[in-house]
Amino acid sequence: MIGSLHGVLVRKAPPHLDIEVGGVGYELEAPMSTFYTLPAVGERVRLLTHLVVREDAHILYGFGTAEERALFRSLLKVSGVGPRIALAILSGVSAAAFARCVVERDTGTLTRIPGVGRKTAERLIVEMRDRVDATGAVSGTTAVPAGAEGEAFSALVALGYKPAEATQMLKGAGSGTTEERIRRALQGAAHE
Predict the structure, then answer these.
(1) Cα dist. 101→111, 116, 139 in Å?
(2) Smallest Cα–Cα separation from 54: which of 73, 22, 82?
(3) pLDDT tier at 165 (50, 70, 90 boundaries)?
(4) pTM
């Protein structure tokens, strides 16, 4: 499977975009949330991807964040929701707003998304309820920060802390190297 692409953005015409990687052009479809963060045509870009294989086509979808891709994958598991509706949902609301809709059982917001009717909105709420935690985050969609903070976050999760706990611990850890952040986060947790 193609997990990500890193290359030059050749074309962007929502929801389609082309990225050239090592002389090979890849056609992707992406939600508007990703388009808002894309650089100008001719600039380098890195996108996470998900490949959908159908009888008549192989379609590559691109995402700016791990959170978007994880929500897309979770949506595909909902009965009656295919890639088009999942893409529309990601284009219509953020992952956090979607999680809030599920927690609050807000079908009204979901039905304002093109392609999502009342029955689909109700099914999304029922089937996604067990995938949304108490904080409103969709399971598996925690965005991992970049650099030293991301490394410290990954280390804390590897030590057994939940992603939400690791994020909270790092808020009080300040800046510095990965090791310094981990040490201060663990010290802060020990004092609580």
Answers:
(1) 11, 13, 15
(2) 82
(3) confident
(4) 0.68
